[in-house]
Amino acid sequence: MSSSQTSSRLDYPRFTKEMRLTHKILIPQMLPIHFSLIEKVLLQEGYDVEVLSNDGPEVVQTGLKYVHNDTCYPALLVIGQMISALDSGKYDLDHTALMITQTGGGCRASNYIHLLRKALKKAGYGQVPVVSLNFSGLERDSGFQLSLPLIQKVLGAVFYGDMLMLLANQTRPYEDRAGDADRLIHYWVSMLGEQFATGHGCSKREMARNFDAIAKTFSDLHVTRTPKVKVGIVGEIYIKYSPLGNNQLEQFLAGEGCEVNVPGLLGFILYCVVNGPETIDLYGGSKAAKSIYRLVFNYFEKRERMMIEAISKYPGLTPPVLFSSTMKCSEGIIGRGAKMGEGWLLTAEMMELEQHGVDNIICAQPFGCLPNHICGKGMMNKIRSVYPEANIVAIDYDPSATRVNQENRIKLMLSVARERLEANPPANPKSKTVPVPAEDRYAAFAAAAAQA
Amino acid sequence: MKIGLDIGSTTIKCVVLGDEGEIVYQSYERHYSHIVGKAAEVLRRIEQEVTGRHAVLAISGSAGMGLADACKLPFVQEVFATRVATQRLAPETDVVIELGGEDAKILFLTGGMDVRMNGSCAGGTGAFIDQMATLLKMAPEEMNEAALHSEKLYTIASRCGVFAKSDVQPLLNQGARKEDVAASIFAAVVNQTIGGLAQGRPIEGNVMYLGGPITFLSKLKESFDSALGVNGILPENSLYYVALGAAYYSDEAFDLEDVIHSLEDYSVTADYATSEPLFSSEEEYAAFAARHARATVPRAALEAARGPVHIGIDAGSTTVKAAVIDDEGRLLYTSYQPNSGNPVPLIRTVLTELYEKKPDLQIASATATGYGEEMIRNAFSLDYGVVETVAHFTAAKHFMPDVDFVIDIGGQDMKCFKVEGGAISDIYLNEACSSGCGSFLQTFANALGYEVPEFAKLGLFADRPADLGSRCTVFMNSSVKQAQKDGASIENISAGLSISVVKNALYKVIRASSPEELGRRIVVQGGTFYNEAVLRAFEKEMGVEVIRPDIAGLMGAFGAALYGRERAGKGAVSRILDAQALQNFTHEVKAITCNGCGNHCQLTVNLFDGGRRFISGNRCEKPLAGGKGTDELNMFEFKRHLLEQYQPIPGPRGKLGLPMGLNMYELLPFWHTFFTHLGFEVVTSGVSSRALYLSGQGSIPSDTVCFPAKLLHGHIERLCKIEGLQAIFYPCMSYNLDEGMGDNHYNCPVVAYYPEVIAANCRCLAGKTFIYDYVGLHRPRDFMARMPVILGKYFDGISAGEVRRAAKAAYAEQEAHMHRIREEGARVIAAAKEADRPIIVVSGRPYHLDPEINHGIDKLICSHGAALVSEDSIAYLAGRQKVAVLNQWTYHSRLYAAAAYVAEHPEMNLVQLVSFGCGVDAITTDEVKAILQEKGRIYTQIKIDEITNLGAVNIRLRSLLAAIGR
Lengths: 452, 966
Known about the structure:
The complex is a heterodimer.
Chain A: H1 19-22, E1 24-27, H2 32-44, E2 48-51, H3 57-66, H4 73-87, E3 96-101, H5 112-123, E4 130-133, H6 148-171, H7 180-197, H8 204-220, E5 229-235, H9 237-241, H10 249-255, E6 258-261, H11 265-283, H12 287-312, H13 323-329, H14 343-355, E7 360-366, H15 370-375, H16 380-386, E8 391-397, H17 403-423, H18 443-451
Parallel strand pairs in A: 1-2, 1-3, 3-4, 5-6, 5-7, 7-8
Helix pairs in contact in A: 2-6, 2-7, 3-4, 6-7, 6-8, 7-18, 8-12, 11-12, 13-14
Chain B: E1 2-7, E2 11-17, E3 23-30, H1 35-51, E4 54-60, H2 65-70, E5 75-76, H3 78-89, E6 95-99, E7 104-108, E8 114-117, H4 126-136, H5 140-147, H6 161-173, H7 178-198, E9 207-210, H8 212-216, H9 218-228, H10 241-249, E10 253-255, H11 256-266, H12 282-292, E11 309-315, E12 319-326, E13 331-338, H13 343-357, E14 363-369, H14 373-380, E15 384-385, H15 388-399, E16 405-409, E17 414-420, E18 423-429, H16 438-447, H17 452-460, H18 473-485, H19 490-510, H20 515-518, E19 522-525, H21 532-542, H22 555-567, H23 579-583, E20 587-593, E21 602-608, E22 613-616, H24 635-644, E23 655-658, H25 664-677, E24 681-684, H26 690-697, H27 707-721, E25 725-729, H28 749-761, E26 770-771, H29 780-792, H30 800-834, E27 839-843, H31 851-854, H32 857-863, E28 867-870, H33 875-878, H34 890-904, E29 908-915, H35 921-934, E30 939-944, H36 950-963
Parallel strand pairs in B: 1-4, 4-5, 6-9, 11-14, 14-15, 16-19, 23-24, 23-25, 25-26, 27-28, 27-29, 29-30
Antiparallel strand pairs in B: 1-2, 2-3, 4-10, 6-7, 7-8, 11-12, 12-13, 16-17, 17-18, 20-21, 21-22
């Protein structure tokens, strides 16, 4: 039988230890703030990395060309972005590698890396090695292995990314001077980058200090808090976050005068962590493994509490909730055994938004996303039975789904939201009416950023 | 005065309100996608005739959004506008159903307001009705008139226009009455609206209908009324509710002159995604035209023909073609006619004309091919029938004996095949969802007010072809609208559509990324390639010069004639009806329902003079005279029979229900044994049927989930109707049993968690015990430890010991069940070898056994004399495979193993069944194909959905059998 026979079809170049010194690693874009921080962490670790920024129609076209067209849209975009970067001629193809994440769950997303390798062969880039970034022990033969200190730093970047994203979203729609929140993000990304470069910024103490400083600077921004429609964005992880995937959804909502509320990346990481012990509880498994998960979870929770504490100190800012309370939100709606794709987390995030008065939700997913049939669209009736006011719209993204169609459906959701807002304006919008700040308020930040 | 302007996808509606809120002006017209120009025109007219320069204004409608944004005009979302208008004009309304050109909406106004709008995939709307009317060669109003005289309804896919088209076309070709088809189309629209939008919420109380289609088509309203069991209201001004809502909502006054100017300015910004022009210069075009003018077939005059001739008839989906050749292959006569539904009279006319022109014609052979092959063959007593892929290949070889690749884009089908060693080695047919073919261009040309040739010419010298993507027609509609709105000219749209057709063929159907994959020697054919823009786009996209025969559109008929010439011996005389017989020709069509088995197929019986007849619509051979069962080598039949053995055995604990869907098709032996041992009487929801599906359709929350999952809602409905059921058991299972064939043993997300969806959406479960806990069979000891806890939540007094004993018996039974399947596999393979019958390994999922899911494909395969083996009966023979993907789902690991086994066994061939919407199969299909192709074997994929056009499936199967020389 041929079962033991290998063939060139199954071969792919490994990313060897030596390549850490010789190869540039390209990373597809997903969350601009987080990824630019992670990029800086990896640079400091000695990896020559670059987060890709190419977009536009050729990304989709390239994806369509090299990926099975019925595969989920995120795979198509991510692979399209990477191959189109290789096509650009900007990189030395014999000294370039690609990095992609792998969750290792029952969703087809775990297969992206294989689809990427197939696509590379098809495109004539068979020599380009692919690095898997995963926490599930897949691809053990790779020369890229996450060491504990590196994991700690990457997680630090995720915490900072979540915090900056959260606070900017809370501030941007109300800022007295357009662009203030984004200038602050820019400042902090360079500032943290500097810390990372010297091996700092990710210890518990440093994080506490930075959290506080970040919260303070955002709290200092001058804002006028008029009542605005609040819209939560949940869904498939890539489509939810990536402007390339969701047709600049956040920008569109900003243009419509909304305050956007996007749950952070940390939630997804903790969801993956929690699924470990949950699986053991449901189907059996080692007790020792369970206690390791517990340790990891506690590590996160300590830092979560630090962030919440920091944000709570400053008026005008709303801290995120602990993941352990997000978890509780889906109870009675969907079982925690639903762990493929975004799984129960998606349902929990919708419930959490509703619980905190964000009635208006966009559930963004790739067309035909399997887990979302269950945890997104499948749960909406049940969510509405708990929160009749829930104003949820599911939007499918796909290479040819037109923006006009998507925006029209979102506008319908917004019309209902605005009508409700006008009928019941919030009692006391938190507002700080300090005079408009002088131009030079940011001079120090700008200078620091320029220097970095 | 207040102006409300509703710019929809096909029409522009305008209302002007006087100071008392009374309507002083209204207009309704089609805009033919000249959105900006038309809007300006309407406003200018109003300014001059009604309002004067200053008025309050708001815009609404799906096509009005971008325009309003760009021109800084207030926009009211159209569903919202409808609600504003309804609350003002008919506040007692409970539910509004509004159909527009491209959108369908339901508004629930009372008891918790909720608005539903079709997703971007659902096209059962006005544009869909227009498409269907085009197909019937009727105006929508005529279609309505016809539908009033219907006698029976056919099942037509209601999901999207393209699907429905592939149902309607065969019905027409098989001779179904247009009256019945028209009524069936309306029923499909109703079905889609209710099933797709209501999502479980009942539509009751005062129902109001709005929008163009329901206003103009009385039968459509009637269909809604009868499906909902209500007498809905079609209010006065039902076309203008959106415009009225916009007008009521408007509060900002404008100088209309300014508005018109800004509209005019907007139209000149041509900002849209583009592709390269097709030709950079006239010279380039001239060289191109000259090159293609050389691929010609020799001709001779029919009147001068000496000796025997061969007739080929290609009854295609949208055209009927005929070719007559002499013994030297010279073309004597051709005919190319649009197929207005029924090809029989057309062919009768063609033959009559032929006999008149040349009364002493010596016909040696007559061969039919195409969709209508069987019917034409029976109607006119032709000698041979040939599957269309083979006909086209035969013709292509005539032009290029060493051809590597043939691509044929016809009216509705796309057929591509790779040729190696003089035989077809790989076949690609378009799936029902991506029919970006000739009729697609035609629909758009007509919608934009052009004929196809004229429309195609426009695109040749377009300077900036619009980039429209490469998906199905419904998506394309919106892309075209978007491009137009962004200022793309008709020329650039035309070129863009041609490029889309090519991209669709290359990337969706063939899945090629470079010319090397196709080979360098390519023949392109099919009527669509007469379109020079498409031809050029193909050459440009692949960077290769191809041959397009001058008879590109006749290649099927030409190939059929060549095929007949090969078959007919010296001195052969055709049996075809002669001139005399043609005069006495009669044709009568009857629609009946077959009662031969539970499928209850809707048959169309064509009766011809002299007792010749042709029956279509059947899924098996039973209704055909002399048809004999071939079930003894059909493993699907065997497996269904195995499952039927698990009958209820009365027990002290009462009845427990299991839904027969998804993984239950494999795990029934386990759960039946387990619960029977615990003292339950285990009843199942039994065999699926169309009626069962429809009964559960209303509670499906996601209209893009796979059909096997959707079907479960019906099974739950049925279980809920069983008296005295203690509980329904349908567990969530992240993991499947570990067969040791992959890196993991997951279920796919849908199989794993569909019980959650059932629990959250099926209202019939209210008050019932539905057990959907998370259960893992992959760790028997843990299963035995956990199950008493789970069951303890619902039942008293089930001890751990009882559970352990029941579980042991259940594991043993499951093992025995799989063993029986493997044994039967071995038996069928041996018997087939003995009888020298081809062996087809049908690879899919356990639930593909369900006849409602596979639509009788197993019987169809066996009717061709093949033996059918299922993948689970041979996968263990090959064992765990090293594959280029993450091999982590139990069912899918079997696919790779079965493929590896087939690859090594030339007497077997693999057919993979893929449920439409199965995301996991986007991964498995490529891998299974690669495993087979590595060993030079043919891969055949069949996509199945709620409704599957068996005609297309048959073409695939026959092509496969032809390719392996059977």
